[in-house]
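Comment thread on ticket #2218

A.B. wrote:
> Attaching the input chain for the structure job we discussed in standup.
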Amino acid sequence: MRKKGHVIALIASQLVTGAAHAAQPSPGHPLVGTWAYTWSEASCVERYRFDADGHFTLSSGSAVVEGSYQVTAKPVVDDFYRLTETILTENLQPDCSGAAVELGRASVSYLQFDPPHDMLVRCQSPSLVSCIGPLVRVPEPGR
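C.D. wrote:
> Ran it. Output below, let me know if you need it in another format.
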């Protein structure tokens, strides 16, 4: 399900009004943890870390982005969870696609996990029409 384009560009294309604030996801939420996506075209790896306190870190190419997120406790439609992210800090370096991100922008995307919750796809809407992935869970000690 690999699609061209960069996930940060996907985020920027899905702008919503308002800003997401850090809110803790529900205990045991499948999103919490570290996820990796490899762009085969550029041999570049994006790594997302979603903390249990509602904050995330993204490293992509030379870019490092931090922000807050909210994710629905349960799927909102057809097994898709709604994820809202707000970028709070970034280092002005290019990501895997060579693009930069804009501070303060909130974005919405939809996530669908495989049944064991070790892979996910990230989509523009709650359908598999325009998605990137799979993002693969990075094993962490104690999880």
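A.B. wrote:
> Thanks. Noting for the ticket: The chain has one domain: 7-23+33-138.
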